[in-house]
Amino acid sequence: MTTTALTHLTQLVTNDPSLGEGPLGLIQDAAVVIDGDRIAWVGPSSKTPATDNAVDAGGRSALPGFVDSHSHLVFGGDRTQEFNARMSGRAYEAGGIRTTVAATRAATDEQLSANVAHYLAEALRQGTTTFETKSGYGLTVEDEARALRIAGEHTDEVTYLGAHIVSPDYADDPAGYVDLVTGPMLDACAPHARWIDVFCEKGAFDGDQARAILTAGKRRGLLPRIHANQLSYGPGVQLGVELDAASADHCTHLTDADVDALANSATVATLLPGAEFSTRATWPDARRLLDAGATVALSTDCNPGSSFTSSMPFCIALAVRDMRMTPDEAVWAATAGGARALRRDDVGRIAPGARADLTLLDAPSHVHLAYRPGVPLVSGVWRKGVRVA
Ligand SMILES: [Zn+2]
C-alpha cells in the first residue's frame, strides 16, 4: 500500500486527547501519515517517518472530515417558492413535506440517485466525509424501499423514516398508517437500512406511536434515532433515551428533565441550526446541554424544506454565533460528535487506525471555520485515504 504524509500543518485537530492538547487533541506544526485507507501515524512534523509521497501543507490546518449524521437527500423537486414566501413574510399554506412527497413519487430512480450524488458531492467539497441520509418522502411501501435502496448506493448510514409524517393517503387513518410503517413497510425497508427514525411531534407522531414504531424497528435489528422536541415540548427526548436511541435530533424545546435524561445517557443531542436559521425559529440552547454534561453533535438536516444547506462549516458558524458554543466545542460536535451520533469510532478523529478522512483548511486553525463565516476555507479533502477534493 502507498503511504502519504501531509506535513507542516500549522495545527491539527485529532479529537484524541492522548495525542495532543485539550479535548480536540491539538498538535501544532503537525504531520499525518496515511497508509491505504487508514491513518498510520500522527505527530510533530519534524518527526514525520519516511513515506512514498508527501504533501507540504505549509500554512494550512487540518481536522477530521465532518460527520453529518442527519440529512434527507432522497427527494424530488425543490421548495424555493415556499422558502421565498416564508422569508417574504407571507403566510404559506398547504404543501410542506407533502409537496416533496408528490415530487419524489413522480421522480425516476435515476433522477433521485443523481440528486443524492449531487448533494453528497457538494457536501464532500465542503469537508463532509461521512453522511447519514433518510427515506421519508415516499410514504408507500414501494417508495420508501426505493428511497433506501437509492440511499444505500451512496452511503452506509441509511435510515428508514417511513414515519416522517402520516402519509396523505392515510389522512383519515393515522393508526392504519402506523400499522403499515411497523408492518409491511418495515418488512420491505429493514433489509436496506441500518437505522429507524420517527418524527415525534404534534402533527406528526405522538409518543405512543413513536414508541411502537421504534420498538418494531428494534425488533427487526434496526437501531433507533428520533426527531425530538423540535417545534414544541414533548415526549421525544425521553423516549429516545429510554429506547437507547443513538441520537435525539433537534432538541430545541427541552425541559430540565429532558436535559438531565440526555446528560445521563448514551443518547447524543444532535443540534441542527440550519433548520432554525431557515425557518427563523428559536435556537436550541447548546450551552445548557453542554453545561449539563450532554454529548452534543452538529448536523445539517439538509432537506429541501426546512434546511437546504449541506455545509457543516455554516452550521459550525451558527452554533458558535447563535447557540453559544465555543469554536472548539462546535468543531468537536461536527466531527467526533457526529461519529458518536452514528455509534462509529472509525471516523471523527485523526489517530492511528482511524479511517483516513481528513479536511484541509486554507487557514491556520479550525477556529477560522466560525471566525470567517461563509468563506470557502476547505482546500482539500481525503476520504478513505483518497484525495477527493
Ligand atoms: Zn430531519
UniProtKB/TrEMBL annotation:
Pathway: Amino-acid degradation; L-histidine degradation into L-glutamate; N-formimidoyl-L-glutamate from L-histidine: step 3/3. Zn(2+) binds at residues 70, 72, 227, 301. The keyword Cell membrane does not apply. Gene3D superfamilies: Metal-dependent hydrolases, Urease, subunit C, domain 1. It catalyses: 4-imidazolone-5-propanoate + H2O = N-formimidoyl-L-glutamate. Its cofactor is Zn(2+); Fe(3+). 4-imidazolone-5-propanoate binds at residues 79, 137, 164, 230, 306. Residues 248-383 form the Amidohydrolase-related domain. HAMAP family: HutI. This is Imidazolonepropionase. It comes from Streptomyces benahoarensis. The gene is hutI.
